[in-house]
Amino acid sequence: MSAYVVMMRERTTDQAEMATYASLAPLAREGRAVTPLVKYGALTILEGPAFEGCLIHQFASVEEAEAWYHSPQYQQAMQHRHRGAQYRVFIVEGIDG
C-alpha cells in the first residue's frame, strides 16, 4: 500500500539553516524509491490556519517512508530543518487499486 510523507512548513525562523537542510535532504532520497509529488507550489488555504508551504513525497509503503525518515542521512538533514522552521510532518497511507 502506497504511503505519503506530508511536510507542512508553518513558519521559517532561520533561512540559513533551511538552506543547509535543502542541500542535505535530497541525499536521503538517493537509492530509495521516492516520488516527489508536491514541492512548495502555489498554495490556497481553504480551511484552518495558514501555513507557508507543503511538500509531499510518495513511497511504496509506510515502512519505506519510515525507513527514509529514520535514515541517518535524513536525521542529519532534519536537525537543520528543526533549527530553521516549524513544521508538521506525517505519513498517511494511500489508496491503491
What is the total domain count?
Answer: 1
Can you tell me the overall shape? globular
Q: How many strand units?
A: 4
Counted by DSSP, the helix tally is 3
Terminal-residue CA separation: 9 Å
Helix percentage range: 25-40%
Averaging pLDDT over every residue, what do you get? 96
Strand order of the largest sheet: 2-3-1-4
CATH topology annotation: Alpha-Beta Plaits
CATH-level-2 architecture: 2-Layer Sandwich
The string of secondary-structure elements, in order, is EHEEHHE
CATH class bucket: Alpha Beta
What percent of residues are in strands?
Answer: 25-35%
Write down the Rg. 14 Å
- The oligomeric status of these chains comes to single chain
Which regions are unreliable across 5 or more consecutive residues at pLDDT < 50?
Answer: none
Q: What can be said about the biggest beta sheet?
A: 4 strands, antiparallel
Structural class: alpha+beta
Give a verbal description of the structure:
The chain is of the alpha+beta class. It has a single domain, classed as 2-Layer Sandwich (Alpha-Beta Plaits), CATH 3.30.70. The chain is 32% helix and 32% strand. It contains 3 helices and 4 strands; from the N terminus they run βαββααβ. Helix 1 runs antiparallel to helix 3 (72-84). The longest helix is centred in the C-terminal third of the chain and has 13 residues, at 72-84. The radius of gyration is 14 Å and the shape is globular. The mean pLDDT is 96.
